[in-house]
Amino acid sequence: MKTVSAAEMRELDRRTIESGTPGEELMRRAGQGVADIAGDVLASRGGHSILLIAGTGNNGGDVFAAATSLSETDLDIEVWICGSQSHIKGDAQLHLKKMTRAGIIPKEVRSANDLSPKTWPDLIVDGLLGTGSKGAPRSFMGPLIEWINNEAQHAFVISIDIPSGIDADSGIAAGPAVKADLTVTMGLPKTGLIRPEALPYVGTVETVDIGIPLEFIEDTEGCEEAVLIDRSDLFIPRRERDSHKGTYGHVLLIGGSKGFTGAIAMAARAAVRSGTGLVSVLTPEEVYPIIALAAGPEVMVHPFSNSGSVPKLFSKHWNKCSAVLIGPGLGRSNETLALVEALLETCGVPLVLDADALCVAPEKIAAAKCPVVLTPHPGEFERLFGRPVTERWTQAKEATYKTGQTIILKGSGTVVAAKGKKLAVNLTGNPGMATGGSGDVLAGLLTGLLGQGMETFDAAMTAVYLHGIAGDIAAHDCTQSALVATDIIEALPDAFRFLQSR
User: Which end of the chain is less congested by CB atoms within 10 angstroms, N or C?
Assistant: First the structure.
């Protein structure tokens, strides 16, 4: 999804208002979107109390519109205004009046003594500062933001448009900034939300359609460097009634070694959940029984006696596979290096290099006979390209031009890069996914999507988005602290359902 600067969004709002949609109506739609998402969050968490915190600008108007909509529910609603109501003007003032007529009387907060909610909230909505804010928060805004972040230990936090305290264009926080679990942004995502500098603050991003005409959006240039991966841009084709397992491909996964059997098994289980027709695993003879049991009955597991025999086995038995993954649990050795180099020279279908397979020279990858997707975390990226990751966007672009291949640079704000494409930034997922095996699940899911014929860049974007959504679902069910990689696999069906429900 295209991202825009604060100035571009203001221009889109202006043109929409001039075309006949009043600013008051745009604000109502924004508030309704926030209210709908807030209600869903509370329902999923079993919560009942919500504290909405407004500034005196237009972001505050979105808060008032949301509170008015929520007044029709049985939720326990409280609204705070940071500052004086007398400073609220224009459309925000109109929605403030509607909110008070609906029976919600806001409380002005101006000092630490005012920071006592009637009921400790299950959900906090941050509408303090909007896209026009620059520099560090002033006056009591700073202490209030710090209070919100402290309460986030117990309450879920939603920010409206941008987390208060970060710059809408650069993503930089010049002072205290709200650390949101979810940012609900209006119309189009602001470029600052996807910048690496903003990652500690934005959480997951959801976009509310407030009715900006499509032709206005198409006329807007947006960020030249990157886009946000959004479910509206992704597509899982409907399965035809007369299809069969051969329709959806046959993927081969190569990995596993003594002491490292879980990685390839989890990758295989994720590939099965991807929708691909058949999944085979090629693994060392000494761990074959363990992996055959761990991968599950849907997976065909085959042993090899030594890695040097794999290229011959591949050319004889597996050359009709539709995608190949190599690396999970395979071990870092000269034998692994030789095997990966041989596959780069002989494989004719999309090849995913993950984990221990990220051991070859970039020049070898650039000379591959097939499309390749690399899936490094920052440590593997440094090993592969010889530099620590300090500038995620720049280095991801440099790496894809050096190899000519698609790269998924994993981590918070996972980046998908491919030659000739804008960077795609993913903001689904959560810190609970920082657990062993999570990357193996992504690699298996990606391989399964490639095996169904999806183009490499599209498959990479879809895989990281679904992986993150599955992680969010799993964290809801299991908590972030207790989440394990197999929970992500079990959540994949619900992630697919979420993607296909748009």
Answer: C
Sorted by where each begins, the domain ranges of the chain are 6-224, 245-500
CA distance 430 to 226: 21
- CATH numeric code, 6-224: 3.40.50.10260
Closest CA to 363 of 402, 389, 420: 402
> Matching CATH topology for 6-224 and 245-500?
no
Is the separation of the CB atoms in 57 and 90 below 8 Å?
A: no
Quick one: tokens of 254? 């190569």
Cα 364–chain centre separation: 31
Task: Pick one of 3.40.630.30, 3.40.50.700, 3.40.1190.20, 2.40.300.10 as the CATH number of 245-500.
Answer: 3.40.1190.20
What is the rounded distance in angstroms from the CA atom of residue 146 to the CA atom of residue 151?
A: 9
DSSP 8: H
Residue 315 pLDDT grade (very low, low, confident, very high; cuts 50, 70, 90): low
In this structure, the strands spanning 278-284 and 250-254 are: parallel
Residue 480 has what DSSP assignment?
T
Q: Are 311 and 338 in contact (CB under 8 A)?
A: no
Instruction: Enumerate residues 6+ apart whose C-beta is below 8 A from 316.
Output: none
Residue range 469-486: average pLDDT?
96
pLDDT for 89-112, tens place per residue? 999 999 999 999 999 999 999 999
> Which residue, 257, 258, 249, 282, is CA-closest to 268?
282
Helix or strand run (H / E) with residue 416: strand 415-417
CA dihedral angle for residue 384, residue 385, residue 386, residue 391, rounded to 10 degrees:
-120
Helix (H, G, I), strand (E, B) or coil at 302: strand
Residue 92: which of 133, 122, 59, 138 has the closest Cα? 59
Specify the pairing of strand 156-160 against strand 278-284. unpaired
Q: Which residues contact 9 (CB under 8 A, 6 or more apart)?
A: 131, 186, 187, 188, 190
> What burial class does residue 501 get, using C-beta atoms within 10 Å of its C-beta: 0-12 exposed, 13-18 middle, 19+ buried?
exposed
Say how far apart CA 451 and CA 124 lie, in whole Å.
43
Half-sphere exposure of 28 (CA within 13 A, CB side): 10
Q: Give the span between the Cα atoms of 84 and 106, in whole angstroms.
A: 11
Phi, psi of 157 (to 5 degrees): -120, 125
Separation CA 4–CA 415 (nearest Å): 18
Query: Which pTM value belongs to this model?
Result: 0.93
Q: Three-state SS for 403?
A: helix
The pair of structure tokens assigned to 377 is 């975390």
